[in-house]
Specification:
InterPro entries: Nuclease_put_TT1808, Restrct_endonuc-II-like, Uma2. Keywords: Endonuclease, Hydrolase, Nuclease. By secondary structure, the chain is an alpha+beta fold. It is built from four helices and twelve strands; from the N terminus they run αββαβββββαβββββα.
């Protein structure tokens, strides 16, 4: 006897999740995660801040991007509802922010900050969806191992370009126009005085 077909998650299922959780629909299954740990939140917040100055606001940098924290993405005709930690769109592809609470235009770059509870989903489930949807660049940031993995899309696959570790300053596509101080992602705030 065949197993009964499982019901695909709907957007109504996602909307029913309490707001203190992050909810996504991945390959028809609802995934619910608690909000990130402080190390996870620190790494994502700092990276978003480092990138948004020169790329989103054009301060001492090239500008031309929208850099956003935790945008809701409706990819592949809305079948996949993903929430990366950070995403970026080139202004030439998305001249204005949408009026909806979600984005149907795939970003040019996504960043997932790994945590023990989500690392497998980010790597195994979400990365192929991003490639399939046409997201050209993806980073995986691990605040525990203090690493940044930089990927580029080649067809429907991801090519690992480089893995950076530690607290050095790096240049990585698509943001190679600036140096990114990795130590800021995992370090304590600078105290003055």
């Amino acid at each position: 006897m065949a197993a009964p077909a499982t019901k695909r998650a709907t957007y109504a299922d996602l909307e029913a999740v309490p707001s203190h959780y992050v909810a996504e629909i991945i390959r028809g299954t609802l995934h619910v995660h608690p909000r990130p740990s402080p190390k996870h939140a620190r790494a994502g917040s700092m990276l978003g801040g480092v990138l948004s100055g020169p790329f989103d606001r054009g301060i001492d940098g090239p500008g031309g991007w929208w850099i956003l924290d935790e945008p809701e993405l409706h990819l592949l005709q809305g079948e996949e509802v993903l929430v990366p930690d950070i995403a970026g769109w080139r202004v030439e592809r998305m001249p204005e922010l949408p009026e909806t609470a979600y984005f149907s235009i795939p970003p040019d770059w996504v960043c997932e900050v790994l945590s023990p509870s989500t690392a497998a989903i980010d790597r195994v489930d979400k990365m192929p969806i991003y490639a399939e949807a046409g997201v050209d660049h993806a980073w995986l940031v691990d605040p525990i191992l203090q690493t940044v993995e930089v990927f580029r899309r080649e067809g429907s696959q991801r090519l690992l370009l480089r893995t950076f570790k530690g607290d050095r300053a790096i240049r990585a596509e698509p943001f190679e126009a600036i140096e990114i101080p990795l130590g800021a992602l995992w370090g304590a705030p600078v105290r003055k005085g």
